[in-house]
Amino acid sequence: MTDSKTGRLRQSGTLNPNPERVADPLFADSEFFDPRDLLQVRYEMVRQTGEASLREVAARFGTSVPTCVRTNRAFREGGLEALIPRRRGPRGAHKVTAEILAFVEEHRARHGPVGSRRLVPLIAERFGVTLHPRGLDKAIARSKKKSSRRS
Predict the structure, then answer these.
(1) How many separate domains does the chain show?
(2) pTM, two decimal places
(3) Helix and strand numbers, DSSP H then E, in the chain
């Protein structure tokens, strides 16, 4: 069972995936310092970087030296907000454009219900974009959902 703090940390993206690796004395049996709180762990790691070697600090906070260096640089460049983990990679669909969706709609209107497996090669030929059939299905579903909200 997860408590409410664990749920809040998970929702905010700051739940430490490896709290058991945090061995810094501040986090041992403390009411305030919580090894599950990744933001707090990273901030304390940054604060202690000047007091000990990077290797020692990284070991106490359950991370690698390169991660410790990146965390310090992120804090210097972006402050506390830069310590919050961000999703990597593209945000949202970026290959399936409105033009491709219009092509799919037009093709299906002319040729009847055509599956994504047949549409993907046609899209690649016409637009030069490589798609996975499932990705196309998801994009079509999102576009239908958006258009039904507008109605």
Answers:
(1) 2
(2) 0.59
(3) 7, 0
